[in-house]
Amino acid sequence: MSEHGLALSEPVPFDVEELNELDSIWSEKFLRAFSNPWKNDILPIKTIELICVGLSSACTNMQESSTRRHIRAALNSGATKEEILMVLKMGAVMSIHSVSLGAPILLEEAKEAGVSPTLKQVSTPSCDKMKQIGQWNTAWDPFFNLDPLWTDQVMDCAVSIYAGGVMSAKLVELLSIAFDASITHMYAPGTRRHIKAALKLGATVEEIMEVLKVCVAFGIDACKLSTTILAEELASFERRSTETST
Fold first, then answer.
1. Three-class SS string for 39-102?
2. Which CATH architecture group holds 7-79+175-192+205-246?
């Protein structure tokens, strides 16, 4: 067993070396709480690490070091290249939430200003496919109405992700919950929609709670970043102080 109560054969999810050196007592408490999902057997380790890959790499985070660390851990836990690549794609297309937010506001303000958008009628096979497989979000209707051709191009990317059969529908929903509930995103409409879908697909309340706990565990990445800087700056300060005193 390590000093944090983790068996050496178990995956240690986060590196808290600097924090441990700065405050070992609080570090142990922190790691005990935040590493809980890795130790309680509610979600498979592979699922947890795929979630972590998504949280690290998503367009709302883009943390290189944690992305690499969790890709390595996901591979070690049995994740395939295709599964990891799908997670990376999901993290990229969640940028669509910018237009989910902005398009309704644009329509409201255009109406207030007395300006009418030019509505276009075009074929949208990819949007139709997303509706067919149950992945269409009615929050997308405003920007679909504003630019159906562009929306269909975006959905063409999405269809290839969600209709590929790489993961179970339930796992896709658990990952989607993590993306939307993540501390760097906190997108309530999507979180609710994907929780509802996950429950319908057989996910338990306990499993969904574990997904949310993994999102919370990313507070360790913030602490890792900041305590590394603090340790480096303390060492530099001490060197300068020593040089000045001599």
1. CCCCCCHHHHHHHHHHHHHCCCCCCHHHHHHHHHHHHHCCCCHHHHHHHHHHHHHHHHHHHHHH
2. Up-down Bundle (1.20)
Q: Are 181 and 215 in contact (CB under 8 A)?
A: yes
Sequence spans of domains, the chain: 7-79+175-192+205-246
d(CA 158, CA 243) in angstroms, rounded, equals 58
pLDDT digits (tens, 9 = 90+) for 158-171: 888 887 789 999 99
DSSP state of 36: G
Q: Is the pLDDT of residue 182 over 60?
A: yes
Residue-wise DSSP of 199-231: HHTT--HHHHHHHHHHHHHTHHHHHHHHHHHHH
Taking residues 27-50, report their average pLDDT: 92
Identify whether the C-beta of residue 174 lies closer than 8 Å to the C-beta of residue 207.
yes
Question: How much of the chain exceeds pLDDT 70, in percent?
Answer: 94
Q: How many CB atoms lie within 10 A of CB 113?
A: 8
Please check whether residue 70 is in contact with residue 53, taking contact to mean a CB–CB distance below 8 angstroms: yes
Rounded (10°) angle between helices 205-217 and 45-57: 50
| Summary count for the chain: helices (H), strands (E) | 13, 0
Element (H, E) at 145: helix 141-146
- Per residue in 46-79, pLDDT (tens digit) is 999 999 999 999 999 998 988 998 999 999 999 9
Tokens coding 30: 């922190």
Cβ atoms of residues 46 and 78 within 8 Å:
yes
Q: How many CB atoms lie within 10 A of CB 124?
A: 18
For tokens 């997670």, name the residue.
Answer: 87
